[in-house]
Backbone:
């Protein structure tokens, strides 16, 4: 299958942004040893791609939330159909369809970005003064020559860590400077690739499904490790694209994860479901009396409450303990008893 349509599309977007920055007034010459019109064209190629893929990225987050929510049901199906793989797969697919969860959605944005990366890699790899097909994919000779000599801190963006001496001579570049800049950018590329995967896993948690967990481990460790080898063959312009894409992803993930928080954050502050234990109230006594239950001295059914402080005093406000109520029924005369005259037995008052 020919990939020319990808190369044409990437070239068109790249040249469009380069022309836009030229029209705005960004100097075509080097500032700080950098041709910013080409660097900005690569950066805004990333912006264009991420804007197009943003709805798919949101669907990825929602699908991951759905996968987290159905983990208990998946475990129940695995226990129920243990040993019957065909039935298990059928039931799992039905559950995915019902709950609108797609286990492959987590890899979809990467699959969609892969053609763009391949296209940019192919286009920038062609930036060689010895290349005769300068006008291929819609480029003009002037644009090709300008891109070939475009630099980042005096290092050509067409150079790479593994450039041969002949390639460096054609690009008029120093091997040491190319290796230093390429090595630093590749290290940043590996670190940001790891951080994007780590941020997502920390927010969503490790999957219970073994296949999903294997994919998460591949994303977290496998891809960054592979860049240690493949980074040596990437042109510096491609590494700039990758680093920019990772930084954009980190910011986008922060925004989306705040807007669509994980289930444990969504349920924070809500009342417990039926069957769950409610949190114990620990409201201290105040001047208006004790409210709620003291966590240090909870009142148990059938047992009298203990005083809150020593000698029955409240530690919260020092209030005196209440006096026990007097049972007036014990003081009342019994039925049939003679009334008692309180004046009887007292000495009579003297007259005069």
Residues:
């Amino acid at each position: 299958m020919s990939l020319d349509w990808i190369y044409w599309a990437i070239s068109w977007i790249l040249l469009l942004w380069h022309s836009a920055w030229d029209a705005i007034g960004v100097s075509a010459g080097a500032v700080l040893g950098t041709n910013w019109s080409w660097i900005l064209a690569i950066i805004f190629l990333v912006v264009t791609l991420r804007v197009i893929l943003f709805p798919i990225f949101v669907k990825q987050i929602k699908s991951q939330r759905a996968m987290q929510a159905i983990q208990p049901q998946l475990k129940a199906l695995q226990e129920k159909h243990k040993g019957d793989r065909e039935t298990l797969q059928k039931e799992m697919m039905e559950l995915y369809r019902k709950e609108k969860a797609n286990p492959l959605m987590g890899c979809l944005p990467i699959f969609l970005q892969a053609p763009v990366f391949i296209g940019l890699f192919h286009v920038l790899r062609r930036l060689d003064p010895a290349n005769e097909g300068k006008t291929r994919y819609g480029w003009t000779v002037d644009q090709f020559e300008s891109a070939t000599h475009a630099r980042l801190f005096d290092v050509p963006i067409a150079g790479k860590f593994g450039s041969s001496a002949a390639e460096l001579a054609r690009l008029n570049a120093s091997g040491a400077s190319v290796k230093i800049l390429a090595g630093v950018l590749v290290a940043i590329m590996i670190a940001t690739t790891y951080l994007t995967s780590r941020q997502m896993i920390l927010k969503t948690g490790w999957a219970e499904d073994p296949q999903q967990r294997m994919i998460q481990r591949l994303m977290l460790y496998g891809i960054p490790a592979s860049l240690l080898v493949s980074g040596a063959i990437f042109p510096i312009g491609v590494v700039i694209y990758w680093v920019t894409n990772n930084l954009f992803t980190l910011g986008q993930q922060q925004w989306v994860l705040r807007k669509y928080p994980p289930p444990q954050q969504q349920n924070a502050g809500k009342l417990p479901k039926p069957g769950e234990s409610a949190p114990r109230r620990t409201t201290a006594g105040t001047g208006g009396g004790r409210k709620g239950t003291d966590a240090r001295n909870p009142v148990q059914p059938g047992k009298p409450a203990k005083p809150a402080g020593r000698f029955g005093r409240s530690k919260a406000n020092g209030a005196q303990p209440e006096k026990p109520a007097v049972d007036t029924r014990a003081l009342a005369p019994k039925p049939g008893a003679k009334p008692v005259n309180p004046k009887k037995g007292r000495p009579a008052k003297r007259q005069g």
